[in-house]
Amino acid sequence: MSHKQYFYLILILGSLATVSPFSIDMYLPGFPRIAADLHTTIDKVQLSLTSYFIGICFGQMLYGPLVDRFGRKKPLYTGLVVYIIASFGCSLTSSVDALIGMRFLQAIGGCAGMVASQALVSDLFPVERRAEAFSSITLVIAVSPMIAPTVGGYVTSNMAWQWVFIILAGIVSLIVVAVYFFLPTGKEPDNSVSLRPKAVLNGYATVIRQPQFAIYTFAGGLANAATFAYIAGSSDVFMNIYHVTEQQYGWIFAFLAFAMIGSTQLNHLLLRRFKSEQIIKATLIYQSVLGIILILGIYNNWFGLLCLIGMMFLFLTGQGLTGPNTSALSLAPFRKHTGSASALLGSWRMGTGALLSGVVSFLHNQTAMPMAGTMAFCVMGGLVILFTGNAVVKHQARGRDIEDEISVLL
After folding, report:
1. Contact 205, 34 (CB under 8 A)
2. CA–CA separation, 359 vs 280, rounded Å?
3. 93 alpha-carbon distance from chain centroid
């Protein structure tokens, strides 16, 4: 694969994976105006974000077996068309409940890109290059928080928040064209993959019983949820507590997104000297320490606006390191059930994101503590899962070795 081919392939796969992050980030600056226009509160508007996370969680479970059975592209086209229709539906809503429902449907369509892009990485790249490929895709994804809130802030203030969803529909229409003309097909359809409920559940059970998948999916997914806790709480923290404008919030969000962009580039360099396992462990320890400092600082009122932004920047650098490496290690053991493994990986990430973004909203107390406390909980929980899971696997391996030695002696 030439450098040019690699660039275009990563760009398209990254664009597919970016559909949902862009859909999340672009309308965040419009929360106050959406709440005013729909005669509701920001807390209720935040539930449209939670419904999007829930839709992604369930939608990926739907697409996993489909991309294994029918190949990568047919389910992908179906999902993206559903997304486009739902986006126009969001722009036409006249109540917050309708917006919540349409966002759920939008997520069901958009998550097809997440499942297909991860499966295609396993199809098109050898095992030793997948962490690098995921890191490059994460770089594309990380650009969206720099662009989306800034664009969303200007669109909301100068046009109307409904235009955010019309623009999203237009962007995804262009992605459909790129997929049709330039994206390789990937793995061929596999008619041996059954879509009967029992067979689908058995396929997922096979995936989740794989120790390496379970450890890095659960640990990485919980750690990754810190990003969603930040997304769910940031508009309230910066706009209502620190009283920044919509445009200023967009620039703050873009600046903090640069933390993830920089760390994905750092990951390329680190992978030349360290294993993915080592990078994940060190990053989670680093973020856990910063999480504790964040909690103490907010509780004791140590942080002004600039100091809080600086601490958040340092914390979010870890998100660009854990995500690509845990994704690569989670999917590495699979060939036959790649789609199902990708779906479970994505569903766990978005499911925890939905739950913990809802927790941030539920704990809302007009301080930054719900956001910061949830972020710290995510990375510390991921660290506990990582150490506990690896300890259990090593213990089981020692037990098997002892049994083998006894059987040899007998």
Report:
1. no
2. 25
3. 26
Residues with Cβ < 8 Å from 301, sequence gap 6 or more?
A: none
How many Å apart are CA 115 and CA 118, to the nearest integer?
5
d(CA 15, CA 177): 12
Residue showing tokens 């229409």? 173
Tokens of 79: 């999902």
In this structure, CATH architecture of domain 3-183+196-409? Up-down Bundle (1.20)
CA-based R_g, the chain, Å = 21
Helices (H) and strands (E) in the chain, counts: 15, 0
CB atoms within 10 A of CB 58: 16
Amino acid, res. 198: K
Domain locations along the chain: 3-183+196-409
pTM, two decimal places: 0.69
> Tokens at residue 202, please?
């058995």
Q: DSSP class of residue 189?
A: P
- What would the two tokens of residue 144 be? 């969206």
Specify whether the CB–CB gap between 377 and 233 falls below 8 A: no
- Give per-residue pLDDT as tens, 353-401: 778 877 887 887 888 899 999 999 999 999 999 989 888 877 666 655 5
Q: Judge whether 167 and 22 are in contact, CB under 8 Å.
A: no
The residue whose two tokens read 């049994």 is: 403
* Tokens at 5, concatenated: 């081919």
